[in-house]
Amino acid sequence: MPEADLGNRWLRQLPNALTVLRLILVPVFVVLLFWHPDQPLWRLASTIAFTVAIVTDFFDGRLARKYGLISDFGKLWDPIADKVLTGAAFVSLSILGELPWWVTLIILVREWGITWMRVAMLKYGVMAANAGGKLKTFLQAVALIIYLLKADTAFMEWLGYLTMGAAFVLTVVTGLMLVREALVMRRQAAKGKDDA
Fold first, then answer.
1. Residue 184: CATH number of its domain
2. Residues 143-196: pLDDT tens digits?
């Protein structure tokens, strides 16, 4: 097989490989976090595992769009990998008593609810990701990294509260906006049927 074909095949599989890596890193991150949650080196190791995993989300999507490598596997598993990773981080922090359960539950209901709503709305059209959703994901990632580091300085604690609060508000607001968008799409589809 020519070397160029091998290179092209490798490039075509790279976004999917990054998605799989993200899924593999979830249990690694969780084990590192719970092994010795109060020891700074273990917390740092778990934070690094989480950060590497969340960074793969940025690269796999960018590569797929830039080089036209969007696949059915990626469409299905990329958002699932994101939700599993961030969900594991939110739940773990709540189990450790470092993040209130009500924050975790509201965020998880929003994340998984919107994911299922998007699937249900496919019969009316695609609900694309928007700038608010991307900012929400970024803020969640930053907030989780700060919480995972568990820095004992007042500034980092304040920064953690601030970023988590902003991520929480944006998560709820963008969720409500997407529900509104879904209702409009459904109404327009019903109106189109009536007009036909």
1. 1.20.120.1760
2. 999 999 987 789 999 999 999 999 999 999 999 999 999 898 888 887 776 665
How is 17-30 classified by DSSP, letter by letter?
A: HHHHHHHHHHHHHH
- CA distances 28 to 44, 53, 77, 102, 119, Å, are 13, 10, 19, 26, 29
Q: Strand, coil or helix: what is 153?
A: coil
In tens, the pLDDT along 107-127 reads: 999 999 988 888 888 787 777
Domain that holds residue 142: 3-195
pTM of the predicted model as reported, rounded to 2 decimal places:
0.85
Tokens of 78: 């990329």
**What is the distance between the alpha carbons of residues 133 and 173, in angstroms, rounded to a whole number?**
10
Instruction: Please count the structural domains in the chain.
Output: 1
**Token duo for residue 110:** 């929003």
